[in-house]
Design a protein that fits this description.
Blueprint: E1 4-10, H1 30-46, E2 51-54, H2 58-71, E3 75-77, H3 94-100, H4 104-109, H5 121-138, E4 143-148, H6 150-161, H7 165-168, E5 178-183, E6 190-195
Parallel strand pairs: 1-4, 2-3, 2-4
Antiparallel strand pairs: 1-5, 5-6
Helix pairs in contact: 5-6
Length: 200
Amino acid sequence: MNPYTLTLLRHGEIDHDGRLIGRTDLPLNDLGCEQMSRSWQRLNQLAPVTSMATSPLQRCREFAVHQALHGSLPLKVDERFAEFDFGDWDGMSREVLYRQQPDWGSRVAAGELTPPGGESYVMFRTRVLSGFSEWIQTARGSHRVLVCHGGVITALLAELLGTEFAVAKLMTVQRGGFAQLSILEGHPAYLMHLESPGDA
C-alpha cells in the first residue's frame, strides 16, 4: 500500500447543555457548521481530499454527505464509526455523573467499568478498528478523511501511534478540529497536524 494522509475530523459544536452525548443524535448548531467549514477549507489546503468515511450520526453524516456530493468524493457511512455507547448515561448531566462516578472516564477506558446498558471499552475499540481496517483497505487516493467523534478519534490515535488510550486522550481534538497523520503500512504513523477550527 502506498503512503497516504489520514485526517480524523471531529464534528463541530452541538447543543449539549453540559450533558454526556454518545448515541443521542443531535445536529450541528450554527457554530458547529462554521467550525466544520473552516476546518474543511484548511485540510483541503494541506492536501485535496480523495475519499471519505463518516459516522452515521447526523452531527457527522450531514456534513460528510454534503462535502462528498459537492466534491464527487466516494463516501462510506459506517455504524462502526459511531460514538461510544454510554447506555443509561447518555444524555445525563456530566456534573451529576462526575458526582456519582468521579473517575468514570479512566475506569471505562481501563476496562474496569461498563456503563449500564452501554458497551465496554473493548467492544468499542474492536468495532472502531474493524470499521477502520475495512474502510482503509478499499478507500482511494492519497488523502482520506474520517468524520467522526472524540472517542473514536482517541481510540484510533492510540492504535495508529502505538500508545495507550490515556496518552492519546491528551492529544485533544476539539470539536470541529482535526488530527492529521501520515501513514505507511508496516511503519508507525506520524502525526503531522493537530488543529482547532480556525487555527491557521
